[in-house]
Amino acid sequence: MTEKVPSISEAEWEVMNVLWEKSPQTAKDVITSLQGQKDWKAKTVRTLLDRLVQKGVAGVNREQRVYTFYPLYSQNKCQRAEAASFIKRIYGGTMKSMLVQFMEEDSLSEEDIKELKSILDERPKKKN
User: Fold this and answer.
1) What is the pTM of this model?
2) 20 to 30 Å CA-CA from 78: which of 3, 17, 58, 117?
């Protein structure tokens, strides 16, 4: 059975991206990293960090004078959980429906199609 990754908001993803880039970090470090990207107040970032800790997605080291934050899940694990949630909500849980829609959009180049075919060809077959 796989471990369920808690769902996080779009704003929380921004904070997690900073933590995945480099950890552990103080709240001040995270605020500084996000200053160039977001127009958020320091209190907003601290609130997002607190939410991530409460959800169990980020951890906090309280043993030092200045608390440091770090991710409890890998970026890949969170991306997979988010993708699965998206496919379930929007496409009824079937990836095939999503892929068909993307293919019908005509937004894939010939190179993209070749790459996808190659990935599918290399994918191990599931045993029934």
Assistant:
1) 0.79
2) 117
